[in-house]
Write a structure and sequence with these properties.
The chain is mainly alpha-helical. The chain has ten helices and no strands. The protein has two domains: about 45 residues; about 140 residues, Alpha Horseshoe (Serine Threonine Protein Phosphatase 5, Tetratricopeptide repeat), CATH 1.25.40.10.
């Protein structure tokens, strides 16, 4: 049945070209040959009897910027003087413009040099710019954040994340273990931290003992 509709469409196309398109007589054989050639190609390659099957679009991987922005919830300043710089930086990071993300945060730090959230975000942006690896510049940014507020959870959390992504699993285990030891039981980041530590220690294997919590 479908071939009947195909032939009808071909005839209507030829009629439209010949009469509605007002093709000159010398061009009509060429136009007809083009339509017939299309029919031959369809007949050789198509299989109209197969049922239709929608193809789902491939799922896009979560970008580094979106992942960092989501994980930072509950650890950073969402309102206030640093929020606008964080928002702009996250926007650049989501589109893969990691250098612009870092430069935006550096600009914000010129005005707010003691803002922990900006230093942490700069560490994340520099790590992203290095392909998700802990670079010396990223490590320095995390250190600067920790110096300004040693009790803030974000510097060790994201420093450990960058270490783990760089393959320094032992270093990440040490940093996250210390953070977990001082995290309140109801801390919004504790559950995620415990899950990451468990996965990390599974990757490390049984030969590595988790670091003991420091004595209070």
């Amino acid at each position: 049945m479908i071939w009947l509709w195909i032939m009808l469409a071909a005839l209507l196309t030829i009629a439209a070209l010949f009469w509605l398109g007002k093709l000159p007589a010398t061009a009509r054989p060429l136009a007809g040959a083009a339509v017939m050639l299309g029919l031959v190609g369809y007949a050789m390659q198509a299989n109209p009897s197969l049922p239709g099957k929608p193809v789902a679009a491939p799922e896009e991987p979560e970008s580094f910027g979106e992942a960092i922005a989501d994980q930072r919830q509950g650890m950073s300043e969402r309102f206030g003087p640093a929020a606008q710089w964080l928002g702009m930086s996250d926007g650049f990071a989501r589109t893969g413009k990691t250098e612009l993300a870092a430069k935006t945060l550096e600009k914000g730090l010129e005005t707010y040099p003691d803002n922990v959230d900006l230093w942490v975000a700069l560490g994340n942006a520099l790590a992203a710019h290095s392909g998700g690896m802990m670079s010396p510049a990223a490590a320095l940014a995390f250190d600067e954040a920790a110096k300004r507020d040693p009790s803030h959870p974000a510097p060790p959390f994201f420093a450990g994340l960058a270490m783990a992504q760089s393959g320094d699993l032992k270093g990440a285990d040490a940093v996250w273990s210390r953070l977990l030891a001082r995290s309140p039981a109801d801390a919004p980041w504790r559950r995620d931290l415990e899950m990451r530590l468990a996965q990390l220690r599974q990757a490390l294997g049984p030969q590595v003992e988790p670091e003991a919590a420091p004595a209070s």
